[in-house]
Design a protein that fits this description.
It comes from Prochlorococcus marinus (strain MIT 9211). Keywords: Signal. This is Possible cAMP phosphodiesterase class-II. The protein is α+β, with helices and mostly antiparallel strands. It is built from three helices and two strands. It starts with a helix and ends with a helix. It is elongated. Strands 1-2 form a two-stranded antiparallel sheet. Helix 2 runs antiparallel to helix 3. Among the domains are: 31 residues, no CATH class; 44 residues, no CATH class.
Length: 130
């Protein structure tokens, strides 16, 4: 009976090794390949024989990704808006606030100057290229 338990216990560790499993701390290597089609042209002569093409496939080793399949990655050009309208909005805001300050009198200044500055900043940003 003890031999049966010992046999079952020892075979349980062997089954993981046969199942292509890996243990923690050990490296696992995997090779990925793909078939490439090749052709070569052999020129002929005008008097003896014509030229011919010989074709074959080769197995080439390629890098593997996490799933074992290969993929080609290419950079996709992105349209980047690097226009900066800081200067235009600053100048436009100052001009708009200055114009509304010179054009208003009395109680209307408390709301007209900030509104003129905000409108001038928006217009200045659009003029500057934003």
């Amino acid at each position: 009976m003890r031999i049966l338990f010992a046999l079952i216990f020892s075979l349980s560790f062997c089954s993981t090794a046969l199942g292509n499993e890996s243990q923690r701390g050990y490296a696992r290597s995997r090779t990925c390949t793909k078939q490439e089609y090749r052709e070569e042209y052999f020129p002929g002569t005008s008097l003896e024989k014509p030229g011919y093409i010989e074709s074959w496939t080769e197995t080439v080793e390629v890098p593997c990704n996490s799933r074992g399949a290969t993929s080609v990655r290419q950079a996709v050009p992105q349209k980047v808006d690097n226009n900066d309208c800081k200067e235009g909005s600053l100048i436009g805001g100052l001009l708009g606030a200055g114009l509304t300050m010179s054009g208003t009198r009395g109680k209307d200044r408390w709301w007209a100057v900030p509104a003129g500055g905000a409108a001038g900043a928006m217009i200045g940003c659009q003029i500057d290229g934003g």
